[in-house]
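Lab notebook, bench 4. Still working through the backlog of constructs that have no structural model yet. Next entry is a single chain of 255 residues. Request: give me the structure tokens for it.
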Amino acid sequence: TKPDLSSEVKLTAALTGLFDQVRAGPAAEALLPWIFDVLPSLHSRRAYFNDLQMFFLRMREQGVSPFEVTASHVAIYKEVLTRAGKKSATIARALSVIRGTYEQFGKKGLVDWKDVGDIHAVTSPRVEKNTTPSLSEAEAKKLLHAPDETTLQGIRDHAMLFTYFITACRCSALLNARVGDIERTDNRFYLIVREKGGKTQRKALLEADGPLFHWLEVSGLIDDPLAPLFPGIARDRKTLLSRPLTRDAVRKLIK
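Model written out:
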């Protein structure tokens, strides 16, 4: 089963399980503040934990303690991932997790700083940016108007896709937004979203304000500032749930 990483207590318990009993406590204490500072998203924490768990499992198979890891072990692990056909972005993320982990260990005196520096020197593979194929203008219009706007769910999906398209924020940032995060300045409307690292950003709604306010009026959410901006809908297709849509639900919708 996947570990529950939703709180500091649960994350501490999960991290403790990665180390021997003698240094499990200090190791978890070294990592906890850093993880919550740079990874506020539960999805990101799970990816971090999985990468760390896989690395330590590999080291354990070789009889290497987490506190005995050297740059040579990390370099060999990089080669193993490469030969396994892992994507460059996956390998780069795993190495970033390892470097960050050992930097925290170094700060707490759990490993030698020379080893930390050597581990940092293991380079990540080059990752090509902006390689995701884009939609043409015609395809984008088809996607935005694909939902059936005669239904409550279709009105919600139309508004969500339009807001997603215009603001270009992360999916999780959009789904965590609440009705009260809409702000008006002069004649324009903005959506306040929280991006990676806890950064708050103000996104202009522009042409998305029409579909969005239509959804809020039809759904009755317009007077409920604490409600999720895009909540789930029950199986009866009429009842709004108290929780926001999930990332998987949005992926399925777009697909």
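Notes after review: Strands lie at 182-185, 188-194, 200-204, 231-233, 240-244. The longest helix spans residues 42-61. Flag for follow-up if needed.
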